[in-house]
Amino acid sequence: MAHGLDILLVEDNPGDVRLTREAFRDAKVRNRLQVVSDGLEALDYLYRRRKFADARRPDLILLDLNLPGKDGREVLADIKQDPDLRTIPVVVLTTSQAEEDILRSYNLHANCYITKPLDFAQFMKVVRAIENFWLTVVKLPPDDGAADTE
To answer: CB-side exposure of 102: number of CA atoms within 13 Å?
Structure first.
Protein backbone atom coordinates (compact mmCIF):
# COMPACT_ATOMS: atom_id res chain seq x y z
CA MET A 1 0.00 0.00 0.00
CA ALA A 2 2.33 2.69 -1.31
CA HIS A 3 -0.02 5.58 -0.63
CA GLY A 4 -0.59 4.54 2.97
CA LEU A 5 -3.91 3.88 4.63
CA ASP A 6 -7.12 5.67 3.74
CA ILE A 7 -9.18 6.71 6.75
CA LEU A 8 -12.69 8.12 6.55
CA LEU A 9 -13.65 10.34 9.48
CA VAL A 10 -17.41 10.91 9.79
CA GLU A 11 -17.61 13.85 12.19
CA ASP A 12 -19.67 17.04 12.32
CA ASN A 13 -17.72 18.81 15.09
CA PRO A 14 -15.02 21.02 13.48
CA GLY A 15 -12.95 21.00 16.68
CA ASP A 16 -12.87 17.19 16.79
CA VAL A 17 -11.99 17.10 13.08
CA ARG A 18 -9.07 19.45 13.71
CA LEU A 19 -7.80 17.42 16.66
CA THR A 20 -8.10 14.16 14.74
CA ARG A 21 -6.24 15.62 11.75
CA GLU A 22 -3.50 16.85 14.06
CA ALA A 23 -3.17 13.47 15.77
CA PHE A 24 -2.94 11.56 12.46
CA ARG A 25 -0.56 14.10 10.90
CA ASP A 26 2.35 12.66 12.88
CA ALA A 27 1.24 9.04 12.56
CA LYS A 28 3.77 6.23 12.29
CA VAL A 29 1.95 4.93 9.23
CA ARG A 30 1.36 7.09 6.15
CA ASN A 31 -2.32 7.85 5.91
CA ARG A 32 -4.85 10.01 4.17
CA LEU A 33 -7.65 11.27 6.35
CA GLN A 34 -10.82 12.14 4.45
CA VAL A 35 -13.60 13.92 6.33
CA VAL A 36 -17.35 14.04 5.80
CA SER A 37 -19.66 15.84 8.19
CA ASP A 38 -22.90 13.86 8.14
CA GLY A 39 -24.30 10.40 7.59
CA LEU A 40 -25.66 11.06 4.11
CA GLU A 41 -22.26 12.35 2.96
CA ALA A 42 -20.63 9.27 4.49
CA LEU A 43 -22.82 6.97 2.40
CA ASP A 44 -22.26 9.09 -0.71
CA TYR A 45 -18.51 8.75 -0.08
CA LEU A 46 -18.67 4.98 0.48
CA TYR A 47 -20.89 4.39 -2.56
CA ARG A 48 -18.92 6.94 -4.63
CA ARG A 49 -21.91 9.05 -5.46
CA ARG A 50 -22.17 12.71 -6.44
CA LYS A 51 -19.04 14.69 -5.54
CA PHE A 52 -17.34 11.53 -4.23
CA ALA A 53 -17.28 9.64 -7.54
CA ASP A 54 -13.47 9.36 -7.33
CA ALA A 55 -13.29 8.52 -3.61
CA ARG A 56 -10.95 5.78 -2.45
CA ARG A 57 -12.35 2.89 -0.46
CA PRO A 58 -11.33 3.57 3.15
CA ASP A 59 -9.24 1.06 5.06
CA LEU A 60 -10.79 2.28 8.33
CA ILE A 61 -13.85 4.36 9.25
CA LEU A 62 -14.02 6.55 12.36
CA LEU A 63 -17.71 7.17 12.94
CA ASP A 64 -19.44 9.61 15.26
CA LEU A 65 -22.94 8.50 16.31
CA ASN A 66 -24.62 11.88 16.70
CA LEU A 67 -24.68 13.27 13.18
CA PRO A 68 -27.04 15.53 11.27
CA GLY A 69 -29.13 13.98 8.50
CA LYS A 70 -28.63 10.26 8.89
CA ASP A 71 -27.15 9.43 12.29
CA GLY A 72 -24.14 7.21 12.88
CA ARG A 73 -26.21 4.23 14.01
CA GLU A 74 -28.03 4.20 10.67
CA VAL A 75 -24.77 4.61 8.77
CA LEU A 76 -23.20 1.74 10.72
CA ALA A 77 -26.21 -0.48 9.98
CA ASP A 78 -25.99 0.36 6.26
CA ILE A 79 -22.25 -0.36 6.13
CA LYS A 80 -22.48 -3.68 7.93
CA GLN A 81 -25.46 -4.86 5.84
CA ASP A 82 -23.62 -4.24 2.57
CA PRO A 83 -21.49 -7.19 1.40
CA ASP A 84 -19.02 -4.84 -0.32
CA LEU A 85 -18.56 -2.55 2.71
CA ARG A 86 -18.97 -4.79 5.75
CA THR A 87 -15.30 -5.78 5.89
CA ILE A 88 -14.19 -2.17 6.42
CA PRO A 89 -13.46 -1.81 10.15
CA VAL A 90 -15.65 0.80 11.83
CA VAL A 91 -14.47 2.46 15.02
CA VAL A 92 -17.30 4.33 16.73
CA LEU A 93 -15.74 7.48 18.18
CA THR A 94 -18.41 9.44 20.01
CA THR A 95 -19.22 11.45 23.11
CA SER A 96 -22.03 9.05 24.07
CA GLN A 97 -21.37 6.92 27.13
CA ALA A 98 -24.90 5.51 27.09
CA GLU A 99 -24.99 1.76 27.57
CA GLU A 100 -27.72 1.44 24.95
CA ASP A 101 -25.50 3.18 22.35
CA ILE A 102 -22.58 0.90 23.19
CA LEU A 103 -24.72 -2.24 23.02
CA ARG A 104 -26.50 -1.15 19.85
CA SER A 105 -23.21 -0.29 18.14
CA TYR A 106 -21.79 -3.74 18.87
CA ASN A 107 -25.08 -5.37 17.85
CA LEU A 108 -24.70 -3.50 14.54
CA HIS A 109 -21.20 -5.03 14.29
CA ALA A 110 -19.02 -2.02 15.13
CA ASN A 111 -15.44 -3.20 15.44
CA CYS A 112 -14.72 -0.93 18.38
CA TYR A 113 -16.49 1.67 20.54
CA ILE A 114 -14.53 4.57 22.03
CA THR A 115 -15.92 7.45 24.05
CA LYS A 116 -14.26 10.76 23.16
CA PRO A 117 -12.58 12.39 26.13
CA LEU A 118 -13.38 16.07 26.65
CA ASP A 119 -9.80 16.95 27.60
CA PHE A 120 -7.48 17.89 24.68
CA ALA A 121 -4.50 15.81 25.82
CA GLN A 122 -6.69 12.76 26.47
CA PHE A 123 -8.40 13.17 23.07
CA MET A 124 -4.98 13.19 21.36
CA LYS A 125 -3.97 10.13 23.37
CA VAL A 126 -7.13 8.27 22.26
CA VAL A 127 -6.63 9.11 18.57
CA ARG A 128 -2.98 8.05 18.76
CA ALA A 129 -4.06 4.79 20.43
CA ILE A 130 -6.47 4.20 17.53
CA GLU A 131 -3.60 4.85 15.14
CA ASN A 132 -1.24 2.54 17.01
CA PHE A 133 -3.73 -0.31 17.19
CA TRP A 134 -5.63 -0.08 13.91
CA LEU A 135 -2.80 1.10 11.67
CA THR A 136 0.20 -0.76 13.07
CA VAL A 137 -1.03 -3.82 15.01
CA VAL A 138 -4.17 -5.02 13.24
CA LYS A 139 -4.01 -6.76 9.87
CA LEU A 140 -6.70 -4.99 7.82
CA PRO A 141 -8.63 -6.84 5.13
CA PRO A 142 -7.32 -6.36 1.61
CA ASP A 143 -9.30 -4.26 -0.79
CA ASP A 144 -10.92 -6.79 -3.08
CA GLY A 145 -10.41 -4.44 -6.01
CA ALA A 146 -14.09 -4.37 -6.88
CA ALA A 147 -14.57 -1.07 -5.13
CA ASP A 148 -11.29 0.64 -6.07
CA THR A 149 -10.03 0.80 -9.60
CA GLU A 150 -6.81 2.73 -9.35
So the answer is: 9
**36 CB contacts (<8 Å, ≥6 apart)?**
8, 9, 10, 42, 44, 45
Segments in the chain below pLDDT 70: 1-3, 144-150
pLDDT digits (tens, 9 = 90+) for 126-143: 888 888 888 778 887 777
Task: Specify if 141 maps to a domain.
Answer: no
Q: Is residue 146 part of a domain?
A: no
The DSSP secondary structure of 97-133, one letter per residue, reads: --HHHHHHHHHTT-SEEEEPPSSHHHHHHHHHHHIII
- What is the CATH classification number for the domain harbouring 23? 3.40.50.2300
Give residue 53's domain range.
5-134
Based on the structure, what is the number of domains in the chain?
1
